[in-house]
Design a protein that fits this description.
With 292 residues, this protein is mainly β. The protein contains three helices and 19 strands. The strands form three sheets. It has a 15-stranded antiparallel sheet that branches. It has a two-stranded antiparallel sheet with strand order 10-11. It is elongated, with a radius of gyration of 25 Å.
Length: 292
């Protein structure tokens, strides 16, 4: 091969590589803002919630009757029946309340992965941003207002006692082969830890895994198997800047009763921040109500 011929090949390759590296990435090609979902009215109930998430955490977010609500869960949060659990519901109350039906905007910002809610009432403007850290198992709720406001974060839990699963509720667990077996969801543990709310569900024995092994006649091999549900603990804590312990109570949302625990602002401020820190792991022991 002559040097001249080799020279032209090298020049061609350099030009081809330069063209490739100069091309825009797929994300730069599209204006992702056009895919944002915008709501200009509040939701009637949880059925009109907006999804947001990060990492292995997912949330359903909506504003109902001038209060922010969200469900939240993390991958791997299975109970004794192998049912995937939501870890609870959070309700944010603001005073003075910036929400009203006329000045409201809720937007899912696709490119950056957060929900932005804007509201205004009687000269008060507020922005709430809900986002999930993709590097750490933490949900953030940032509240900014044009004037100092008080905030209350209310954690609501409907698994405060044994719950017998009936009918189609059993479609969510692994007892489908044993319709004659009464299936019970065990209660969560919830309480205050100084200025935090701690909540978790810890699986107790026996689990549906144990029943399945027995039903399949594999008890002699059971000690060679790993039970993924045994001692599985899922939950976390709710805390926030400028938040202190509030009250506990009870109520009903739609057709389901619940108990509640709240954190309240130490004083009204323009910026309030609330966060959830999650844990899902198999733990042999518990310490101070937390997995260790």
């Amino acid at each position: 091969m002559s040097k001249t011929y080799l020279y032209y090949i090298i020049v061609f390759l350099c030009c081809w590589i330069t063209r490739i590296t100069a091309q825009e990435s797929p994300l730069d090609t599209y204006n992702l803002d056009t895919y944002n979902i915008v709501w200009l009215s509040q939701s009637k109930n949880a059925g009109e919630s907006m999804p947001v998430g990060g990492g292995d955490i997912g949330c359903n977010v909506w504003v109902e009757k001038n209060e922010l609500l969200l469900y939240f869960s993390r991958s791997g949060s299975f109970d004794e029946n192998n049912a995937f659990l939501k870890s609870g519901r959070l309700r944010i109350k603001l005073s003075p309340n910036p929400f009203n039906k006329d000045d409201f905007r809720q937007e899912l910002v696709v490119k950056n992965g957060y929900i932005n809610i804007q509201a205004g009432h009687n000269g008060l403007q507020a922005v709430l941003r809900i986002w999930v850290d993709v590097f750490n198992p933490v949900i953030h709720i940032d509240i900014s207002a044009s004037k100092a406001i008080a905030a209350e974060a209310v954690y609501e839990n409907w698994r405060y006692a044994d719950r017998l699963q009936k009918g189609k509720e059993n479609n969510a667990n692994s007892w489908k082969w044993a319709s004659h077996v009464p299936v019970v969801t065990r209660p969560d543990q919830v309480g205050f830890n100084q200025n935090e709310i701690v909540f978790y569900h810890r699986n107790l024995s026996p689990t549906v895994f144990d029943a399945t092994v027995k039903q399949q006649g594999l008890d002699s091999l059971k000690n060679q198997m790993i039970n993924p549900l045994e001692q599985l603990t899922s939950g976390g804590l709710v805390s926030g800047d400028n938040f202190i312990k509030g009250n506990s109570g009870q109520g009903q949302y739609l057709n389901t009763a619940f108990k509640s625990w709240s954190l309240v602002s130490r004083r009204p401020v323009k910026n309030n921040r609330c966060r959830f820190i999650y844990i899902t792991a198999r733990q042999k022991t518990l310490k101070n109500g937390k997995g260790n």
